[in-house]
Write a structure and sequence with these properties.
The chain is of the alpha/beta class and 255 residues long. The protein has a single domain, classed as Alpha/Beta hydrolase fold, catalytic domain (Rossmann fold, 3-Layer(aba) Sandwich). The chain is 42% helix and 15% strand. Strand 2, helix 1 and strand 3 form a beta-alpha-beta unit. The longest helix has 21 residues. The N and C termini lie far apart (34 Å).
Amino acid sequence: MLPHVEIHGRGRGPFVLLVHGFLSSRAQWRLNLDALAEVCRPVVVELYGHGRSPAPADPAAYTVAAYLAAFEAIRTDTGAERWFVCGQSFGGGLAIRYALAHPERLHGLIFTNSISALSRLDPAEMERRATLIEQGGRTGLESMRIHPRHARRLPPDVKAELVDDAALMVPAAIARSIRVTRTDLYTGDDLHRLTMPVLLVNGQRETAFQPLRDKAAAAIPNCRVADLDGGHSVNIDAADGFNRAVTAFLTEVGS
């Protein structure tokens, strides 16, 4: 069972897998697709239990290993021998994990602010969040600070699409994502093993991420950083800068 996938673009340039963050959807990339499609073929995936993807009952489907296998199946379906992977937030952790597991399959890696990937969280706090969602259902989901309904800096049309897609989320699957996927996203001790070109697009307004930005920049051997005047969802609230940085990286590395 594969996640929901959509391929965009005009049939030219390398494929780029776009992996959204927690409680997001394909709408995460709405302001980026046209610009990226000028130089690549975006492959938009939605995480299990999010958007139009299935919500498997088996917790094994939510393991990082299962996601990496799904990404490999998607790559095979595109016919690409190598591609780029770009992850946002929670999806950034999955993107880095994929790069560590399959360096031979990547032209390059792109990720944005990802506290999930670069810091350890308290297991008790993770269990508290999962239980809140299980007990509260959709109300529990909507009470979470990172639910898109609480966003303040997103363009109204993008926020509206994200909120509509949030109504498709399956609470039990989101709880599994916390308990199973989130517990294995930390990559802070492995960043030095990233051998491919890496672009970190950093939203400087997320102050909690800035020490992690410095850690990643120092640890990753071939890392370039684009610091932008944006927040956690830097690809949305600083879309023009994100699009310029990523298209330049894709053009240079993929040529």
